[in-house]
Design brief:
Elements (H helix, E strand, L loop, with lengths): L2 H7 L15 E3 L8 E2 L2 E6 L2 E11 L3 H12 L4 E7 L2 H11 L3 E4 L8 H11 L4 E6 L4 H9 L4 E4 L4 H14 L2
Parallel strand pairs: 4-5, 4-6, 6-7, 7-8
Antiparallel strand pairs: 1-4, 2-3, 3-4
């Protein structure tokens, strides 16, 4: 191994564990996204390397996907690695992209978010999931948690603040 990747491999894993909001920054090193660390990937931003978490956005509405992407891309702690318009595509993308977090809508064609969460939990148990839906009953929260979802957020809430707080919380649990 040579170059920046070797240099980063010399760091203890605690560098990657500093997590959201307190990410360690290594000045002047360019490491491609393929250089993944525990809980995120190394990205170069303005000559700095920061730890970010990869996110897969899953919603049947292109407008919602676009809004979520725009919200996440304003923050260097998050890298949107892909999008899917239904649960079946999401499951396939999780197998290929290995995101740290999946944001799932509940009601989608082909495969709903609950079934996708169950399958994702089986194939990628380390992947955190947040359900982002217009529904918000206590029974839904219970069913979602049983399927491996860590948090259920309402689309009616102030979504940027609630979503980012939820993502930070679940990523700090790792």
């Amino acid at each position: 191994m040579s170059g920046a990747l070797q240099y980063l491999s010399d760091f203890p894993h605690s560098v990657g564990e500093s997590s959201v909001g307190t990410s360690k920054v290594l000045a002047g090193i360019h490491v491609p996204s393929a250089g993944r660390s525990t809980g995120g990937s190394w990205l170069s931003t303005e000559g700095r390397v920061v730890l970010s978490h990869t996110v897969l956005i899953v919603d049947d509405s292109p407008l919602i996907r676009h809004s979520l992407r725009a919200c996440l891309e304003q923050n260097i702690d998050w890298e949107v690695c892909g999008e899917a318009e239904n649960g079946q595509i999401a499951v396939e993308k999780v197998k290929v992209l290995h995101p740290d977090v999946v944001i799932l809508d509940l009601q989608m064609p082909v495969m709903n978010g609950m079934e996708a969460a169950r399958l994702i939990s089986g194939i990628a148990p380390g992947t955190a999931m947040v359900m982002f839906t217009i529904h918000g009953s206590e029974q839904l929260r219970k069913d979602a948690r049983a399927a491996g979802v860590r948090d259920v957020l309402s689309k009616a809430e102030r979504f940027p603040d609630c979503l980012l707080a939820s993502l930070r919380s679940i990523c700090n649990e790792h």
